[in-house]
Amino acid sequence: MxxxxxxxxxxxxxxxxxxxxxRHQVRCLDVFLNxxxxxxxxxxxxVSVSVNADLCAEVIQELAVGGTKMIAQRSTGYNNxxxxxxxxLGVTVGRVxxxxxxxxxxxxxxxxxxxxxxxxRAANRTRNFDFRLDGLMGRDLHGRTVGVLGTGKIGxxxxxxxxxxxxxxxxxxIAENPRCAELGMKYVGLDRLFAESDLIxxxxxxxxxxxxxxxxxxxxxxxxxxxxxxSSRGGLVDTAALVETLKAGRLAGVGLDxxxxxAGLFFFDKSLEVIDDDTLARLMTFGNVLVTSHxxxxxxxxxxxxIGATVRNVEDYLAGRVNDxxxxxxxxxxxxxx
Length: 338
Known about the structure:
Layout: E1 2-5, H1 13-20, E2 25-28, E3 46-49, H2 57-65, E4 70-73, H3 83-89, E5 92-94, H4 101-116, H5 119-127, E6 145-149, H6 153-165, E7 168-172, H7 178-182, E8 186-187, H8 190-196, E9 199-202, H9 216-221, E10 227-230, H10 239-247, E11 253-256, H11 278-283, E12 289-291, H12 300-318, E13 326-328
Parallel strand pairs: 1-2, 1-3, 3-4, 4-5, 6-7, 6-9, 7-8, 9-10, 10-11, 11-12
Antiparallel strand pairs: 5-13
Helix pairs in contact: 1-12, 2-3, 4-6
Keywords: NAD, Oxidoreductase
Domain D-isomer specific 2-hydroxyacid dehydrogenase NAD-binding: 110-296
EC number: 1.1.1.28
């Protein structure tokens, strides 16, 4: 069988082809699956997609008409998929329930350290042989307080690093992680976490209940010199409110690997185009803001695990088996719809 895979990054392609070698051929495309590209999938029973695919009802309908029976998403999040539409059309949907939490946790810390110690600004200066220290002063993190929103596998990995720095640990989640509590984490309400944290890192999924979790009120409750890091989902932060907060001279630094309107921007080369997203353009003008292109997960270890899980999902589908990664299977409604 030949499988078609959308949104395949250059570094990902050889890993994906190798993983399916001896089983199936893979047609790898760098374009993302959406309304415009869905017709390309006609004739393919199995379609693999990245997290930036637009799998709305219209796209899934197009896939089903073209003969697609299984969608294998190469990510953990699936808020981009209309599971109800997939169930109605009899399309099986699988995802990757977990992969290396260290990839994202370590990158989140990279963002935190970069904005705290002004590393990007310093590197840009020294390339021009400007070796002044003006404007480069950061702070010791040892002894300061970190607030971790979401203490699942990634949040726990982030917390362990924070513990190594010797920080005071505050956490917020719907359920306490006993392993974080063993490290000395205190679970508190959002008001206290925002008010007391010097560094805040987001590790919760994007749900209706968490959309714009960091809104104008949350930002107002934070310390003026707090550092905010988001390596989870862009929609967790109200970017317009964040811009207004930065314009007021508040927050010591912001590190974002995700952006709520990143679809159509991230993973593309837009360097020769005019960016019409005024909010993102304004955000990028602040010297204490670092934006990266949704790359926190992008390590050999994590991508290898993602691809390995995708292969298993496809093999289980073809063998008529079901595993914990499946969100929709024939004759079964998605969990949220039951």
